[in-house]
């Protein structure tokens, strides 16, 4: 007898095979049959007539670790069929911690709606804390280089020890964010030394590389240098090139060609995001000389007109198009201290305040004070053609680079963009159904088995006997993003049923509140 029978649907297996009519039988947390099952006896039957049945989606690049404690039921992403997320990306995780960084993390998590003090310090303790809360989704965790560097105060032996501890606790590997914060201060040699731990432990190296415009070539070569030292298992995060920021003609095509060349000796892939716009931290625009003494000090220094004058020249590491006067490409997304300005472009803010855009940016950051690092901007970063080209490329899996959110509570105030509510559905509704950027089977493969195979989660991401029963049903024609830039706080609809480890967590479009998710550790 089956525990669950999904009958009458069109099965897309996740491995690239053509859609076909079949039923899916589940016992416990495993799929036991993918074939016609007329008359099968089951404790629960889900009628998927007219629906697509496919593996649960796997996001290869997520920051949901920062919201899972406040939103363990993954309200926005589970409704899109995302059953597994790779978290801990871009070097920024909330373990390991020093006493000083623990206070900063406590404040950041509280702003997201998690009221409890941070009691953990080590990475394993963090995983225990999350397990104690329970999650609807499966999570595979990377440990962040920036967190390690800050906890170890940059001492090489201590950084190595903290990475060893995280790997022993079940971290999938190490992530870096080299365009901002502590990661920006790290030299290649420091990262190569840490990569040796990954090589010994069989860990993954992922990177938000140091530059994706004028210095893209050097940043890509640095990535490959570190990846080789790590043993050759790597993920180049969101490999895209920002529009009109100084990248040479053909820079992205060159980077992809290098990726193809290196795959002869390494297991390396890249990922892409679904929208032409992207979200970034305003602090990413600021140079290290302003940030080295902490956010509160940096904010106070913005009172000095000479500091502001110097910043107009030195704020050039991130979103360089503002130096060309293209402020219309930048919108203030999240700034609690100046919430009345959220959703406005910087020319609109400048008109309202009677100041130029640079001073408006500095005013917003000054008002944020010690929370300067949490101010978020939205930028029109990419062309539609570039996004489509990357999505189609066979070496790119499809991620969102956001985090799971909800339409109420503190998170609703911090996630005012469709990325958080409809990013995954956008691939299927916009790029597959409406634009034909790629076909359904290919898109599902790039969001399931391709990710599972590369990240060492091989018994997920596919519909076949023996695989874990992470399964979704959806109506492609009826998929609706609902979330817009003007009215972002709406959940996507059209994903009718979601099972995680054989447990129904979305039932006919309704979240059940179940938390069957698991930590997915690195496999030996």
Automatic annotation (TrEMBL):
GO terms for molecular function: hydrolase activity, acting on carbon-nitrogen (but not peptide) bonds, in linear amides. It holds the Pfam family Amidohydro_3. Residues 44-271, 408-506 form the Amidohydrolase domain. InterPro entries: Amidohydro_3, D-aminoacylase_insert_dom_sf, Metal-dep_hydrolase_composite, Metal_Hydrolase, Metallo-dep_Hydrolases_sf. It comes from the Bacteria. PANTHER family: COLLAPSIN RESPONSE MEDIATOR PROTEIN, HYDRANTOINASE/DIHYDROPYRIMIDINASE FAMILY MEMBER. This is Dihydroorotase. It comes from Amycolatopsis taiwanensis. The lineage of its organism: Bacteria, Bacillati, Actinomycetota, Actinomycetes, Pseudonocardiales.
């Amino acid at each position: 007898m089956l525990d669950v029978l999904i009958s009458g649907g069109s099965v897309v297996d996740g491995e690239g095979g053509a859609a076909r009519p079949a039923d899916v039988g589940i016992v416990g947390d495993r799929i036991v049959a993918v074939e016609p099952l007329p008359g099968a006896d089951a404790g629960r039957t889900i009628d998927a007539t007219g629906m697509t049945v496919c593996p649960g989606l796997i996001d290869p690049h997520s920051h949901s670790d920062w919201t899972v404690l406040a939103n363990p039921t993954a309200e926005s992403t589970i409704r899109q069929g995302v059953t597994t997320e790779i978290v801990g990306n871009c070097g920024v995780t909330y373990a390991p911690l020093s006493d000083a960084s623990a206070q900063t993390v406590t404040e950041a998590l509280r702003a997201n709606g998690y009221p409890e003090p941070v009691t953990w310090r080590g990475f394993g303790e963090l995983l225990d804390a999350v397990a104690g809360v329970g999650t609807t989704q499966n999570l595979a965790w990377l440990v962040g280089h920036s967190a390690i560097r800050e906890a170890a105060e940059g001492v090489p032996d201590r950084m190595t020890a903290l990475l060893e501890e995280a790997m022993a606790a079940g971290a999938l590997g190490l992530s870096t964010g080299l365009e901002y914060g502590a990661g920006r201060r790290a030299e290649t040699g420091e990262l190569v030394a840490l990569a040796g731990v990954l090589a010994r432990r069989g860990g993954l190296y992922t990177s938000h590389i140091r530059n994706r415009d004028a210095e893209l070539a050097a940043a890509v070569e640095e990535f490959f240098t570190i990846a080789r030292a790590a043993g050759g298992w790597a993920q180049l995060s969101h490999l895209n090139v920002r529009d009109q920021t100084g990248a040479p003609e053909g820079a992205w095509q060159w980077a992809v060609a290098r990726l193809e060349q290196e795959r002869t000796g390494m297991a390396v892939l890249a990922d892409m995001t679904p929208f032409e716009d992207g979200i970034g931290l305003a602090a990413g625009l600021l140079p290290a000389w302003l940030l080295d003494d902490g956010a509160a000090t940096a904010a106070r220094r913005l009172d000095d007109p000479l500091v502001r004058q110097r910043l107009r020249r030195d704020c050039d590491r991130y979103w360089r198009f503002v130096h060309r006067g293209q402020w219309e490409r930048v919108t203030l997304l999240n700034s609690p201290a100046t919430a009345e300005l959220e959703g406005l472009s910087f020319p609109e803010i400048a008109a309202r305040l009677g100041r130029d855009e640079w001073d408006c940016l500095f005013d917003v950051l000054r008002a944020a004070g010690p929370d300067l690092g949490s101010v978020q901007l939205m930028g029109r970063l990419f062309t539609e053609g570039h996004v489509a080209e990357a999505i189609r490329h066979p070496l790119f899996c499809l991620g969102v680079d956001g985090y799971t959110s909800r339409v109420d509570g503190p998170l609703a105030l911090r996630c005012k963009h469709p990325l958080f509510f409809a990013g995954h559905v956008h691939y299927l509704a916009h790029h597959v159904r409406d634009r034909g950027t790629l076909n359904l089977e290919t898109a599902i493969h790039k969001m399931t088995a391709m990710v599972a195979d590369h990240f060492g989660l091989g018994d997920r991401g596919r519909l076949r006997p023996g695989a874990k029963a992470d399964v979704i049903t959806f109506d492609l024609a009826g998929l609706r993003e609902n979330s817009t830039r003007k009215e972002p706080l709406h959940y996507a609809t059209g994903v009718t049923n979601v099972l995680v480890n054989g447990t129904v967590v979305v039932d006919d479009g309704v979240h059940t509140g179940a938390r069957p998710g698991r930590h997915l550790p690195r496999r030996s």
